[in-house]
Write the structure tokens for this entry.
Amino acid sequence: MGLIRMTKWRTLLLATVGFNFSFLVWFSFAPFTGPMAEEFGLSLGEIGVLASAAIWLAPFGRILTGWLSDKYGAPSVFAIVLAYVGVFSMASAFAQSYAVFFVERLVVATAGITFVVGIQHVSEWFDEENLGTAEGVYAGVGNAGAAGGALVLPRVFGPEWSGPLFQTNWRAAFFYTGVVSVLLAATYYLLGEAAATEERRQATAESATLKQWVHTATRYGTVALALAYVMSFGLELSMNGWLATYYREAFDTNNLVLASTFAATFSVAAGLLRPIGGYVSDYLAREEKNILPVFEGRYREQWTFVALSFIVVAMGVMTLAGLSGDVLIAVAAGFLVGMSCAFAEGAIFAQVPAMFPNSSGAVAGVVGGVGTVGGIVYPLVYSSALLPNLHVGYAVVGAVMVPIVLLNAWVYRPHVASRATVDGFLGSTGGPTTTDDD
């Protein structure tokens, strides 16, 4: 028992460190958009495309790796992703044409697919009553890797960088982060253990069939949570890739380090506050507390709905803060948006493994993969020439989120929620639900 307990915490630490660095690598381009744009001759719109492109391969990649983690175990899958991401990150440091650089960074951006691998790995080791908190710590500290990129990289690799191999700061940053990624891949493979027991490992592996994947992917609960993740994690992705440019361009903040620091306040909130979202979900389910009587008895769902509503309100505040013309007010509003993302993401991924204990990787892959779509679309809205300024896009995105909130409200009604893992858009199995709130 003592050995299992020790390995459980080692697993959480290993997954968290691996995902934290994956996130840093994923958004390592964001602090350097200025010098990269200057070297390759990019317009503001093209920078928006680069921010969007960082997410293009994530939807399919997360869906695939979620299933692969169930089938073959998280340590092997996590190690493979970290290894090839590291190699392509190093290669991108030597790119001389923008076309080659763009393709290489597309591959590097798949670092974000490790999220669902870690979710599956943690769920194989932690009991349901503490699952939301554990997943919140994993994902929250992991997501803060974006803040690490914004805070650490432009300071370590500053404008005056002159070191071995490279005289250009962003090229050096991409190369050395790639080296660390390869080293982490070896560490994860050697130290990771797939599940707490062989029986649990086998139950998860046996559920990883195409038929079962289609079933879980089309349940009401899966679809609602996937779209909720579009407006929470997809929003976080979009802000991580865009805010440094926003604070620089919208407020004429020409200092690269300062603009990146402003942007990092969002990433800190979105990452480090995420465990709170998971903890509240665990607490309400454990204590059977109703905070929204309209969804009586659906304790985790109540908290998720509150958090999703918070996001919509925060996006309106973000636009108003930007229109004030005061960059510090806008930075504070960005922190508020990050907080709303953190609470919602923690709530969502407290629900996922609790609802689908034997298919957590597959469902996490669907939810996490579909969720990244927001990171592709939202930067294109922020930088759109059709809008009067760079502030209005946040309110537009917030308005588009309202139908997603309403869909989740429909699914969270007690008589629908009680069968949300059984009934779906392609029929039902007619069996009992497996949710934790019954």
Remarks:
- The first strand starts at residue 423 and ends at 424.
- Residues 14 and 119 are 12 Å apart (CA to CA).
- DSSP finds 22 helices and two strands in the chain.
